[in-house]
Every structure is written in C-alpha cells, then in structure tokens.
Amino acid sequence: MDHLYRGRRFILSKRTSELIALLALSTTLFLYIHTRDLNTKLKEMEIRIQPVSMISSNQLVLSDSGPPAYTGVKATMKLLESTGQMSTLEPSLLNNTKKAKINLIFFNRVPKVGSQTLMELMRRLSMRNNFGFHQDRVQRVETIRLSPEDQAILAALVSSYDPPGVYIKHVCFTNVSSFGLPEPIYINLVRDPVERVISWYYYVRAPWYYVERKIAFPDIPLPDPKWLKKDFEDCVLSEDRECRYLKGEIREGIGDHRRQSMFFCGHHPECLPFNTEGALERAKRAVERNYAVVGVLEELNTTLTVLENYVPRFFKGASKIYWDEISRYYPINKNNFKPTVSEEVKNIVRKNFTKEIEFYEFCKQRLHKQYLALKLPELIT
Fold this sequence. Notes:
Elements: H1 2-5, H2 14-36, H3 38-44, E1 60-61, E2 69-70, H4 72-82, E3 104-107, H5 115-129, E4 132-135, H6 148-160, E5 165-168, E6 185-190, H7 193-203, H8 207-216, H9 225-229, H10 232-237, H11 262-265, H12 277-290, E7 291-296, H13 300-310, H14 312-315, H15 318-329, H16 343-350, H17 354-372
C-alpha cells in the first residue's frame, strides 16, 4: 500500500499554515526561554509562606545609618500611630461585606494584575468551601465600558446565580444595586500602574497570546511583525503614539489598558480621560463605598490575609492553597518574553501616570488599614 502514498501531496489551507507557523515559533521561543531561565524557576519553586513582616514588600528595612526606615504595612502602621488613628481601627468599620444583600462575589477583574491567579485560587476554593464558580466566556472583542442597557443586563446576570457563588468578568465597576437588584460583594486587585502597562505591552505581543486567539477566532488577522517586535523602551524614548500616555487622552482598543482606575471609576464619560482628577475621585469613592477588598499584587500575603478575614465564607484557607499549590506548581500567565525595562524609562512613564499612581497608593493604604485593624500578633511591636 505504501506505493499509493508515494508522491502524494498534501495541500494545507492558508489558515492551517498560519497556525502551524505560529505554533512552531511559540514552541521554539518557549524552549529557549525556559532553558535560559531554569535557574530562576528552580529558585521560585522554593517559595513558601512566610509571615507578612518577612515578605519584601511588607518588611522592615534598615538603613546603613540613622533610624530605621519602614515600608509597606509597617510604614502605614507608624504613620497611623503618629496621628493617633491606630487605636481606632476596627475591621467592622473597614469591611463592606456586611453591605451585601446577596452572598455572591462580583470580581470585575483588571487585566495584568494577577487576576488569573486569583481566579484559579477561587476556582479551587469553590470546591473546598462549597460555592458556585462562574466566569465570562472568552470574547472576540473585550468590551469593558457598557451602555446603561447592557449594564442592566449584566446586573441581572450577576444576580441570577444561586448564592453562594462568584461571577468573574473583565468589566468596569457596575453598581448592581442601582438597577434595583441585591448588592453583591465586590472584590478586585490592583498593581503598580507602570509595571502593569509594561506587562500589558508585552502580553499582547507574546507568540502564545496570538496562538490562543487564532485558535479561538481563526479569522482574526495576524499582527504586523514590526509591531510585534517593537521594544517598550524604544517606544517610550521615540515618543511613539502607543507609549506617550498623554493626560486627558481618550482611546479605546487593545492598546489602551493604561487606565487601571477605570475598572473602579465605572462607565461614566468622566472615567474615560486618562490620568485626570475626576476619574481618580470617582474610582476612590467606588472603592470606599462598594468594595469589600481591593488586593495588591505586590503585597500578596497581606491581600490573602485580608480576604480570609473580611470575606471568610469564600476565602477560608486561601493562603495555604495559594502557597502550597498554585505558586509552586501552577505559575499562571507569566510572560518570559518580557525583557527588563530600565528605571530611567519607567521614571519617564511615571511622570504621566501621576493620578494612576495616586489611586494605586490609595488602594494600598486602604488594604494596609484593613490588615492592621485585625491586630495580628506578627505586627505587634
């Protein structure tokens, strides 16, 4: 029978050829990067849970001379002590979970802040803590700002799930109770806004990103190779349109995930202009009035502890599952194709992210206050 197949030509469609080429490129780069970074990955496998005071973002930092300098939770604690506010901190005054009228979490996750990891953690917790787990399907075009009609539809969808449960979607803050429906428990995560925009920049250029998109939506055209190869530092230094980050600028589309605060500000037109006071104040108000917990990626131990104590029905045992299972064996969405960006370039970008940085610091201080209100032994001095 072999002679029947000799000389036979197999003709592949253009779509299949593109997919094979993408897979080959992705596999080659994947193997190269993983070989190069083997030592780093081995060190990451050694991560174990530690007291909050021992984690780098929360630890006590000693200077070479003079009095000690404090960072993270310690810095907030010293500030509150100096103003007499430390003694008045109470978890009941800092927890919006009690405002919820339905035992349902709405996680309107921000991209590139570790939300995939938190989502995986919640999926595992749903099996252990017995609650429903629901997430939005993959979208061809992610629409995060909705019309009032679509907001009402989303609010109805969130309310339709049987409690206890969680619903997860990339979308701006949607006030479910404003549509006459029971208030859910809102949670979210934030990240240093400059690190986040760098992460997004390289995430949408990673080969595996387009492999996944091509598989899900075969008719999506491949991007321009020049755009894929564009370096972030060169983009900033050359004042490329994509990396200028101008105050008040309004842009939509795949390249405009610069406005972390918009996921808290909501759907109002005032939330659209980049790095403005109006958007900042709306986002702050939503966090204070509506969100039970807004975690911080760089302070994960603190975040997990606050979630366990402020939303215990859903997050009981979260720290153990994260450190014993997810962080050690299931790194999620880590982009090994992202090169190091110099502090000089980051500082250029920071100058245009002043309101976004202020919002990030606001969320961080609120998280610190929630943690300190618990009066845990490791922070008693």
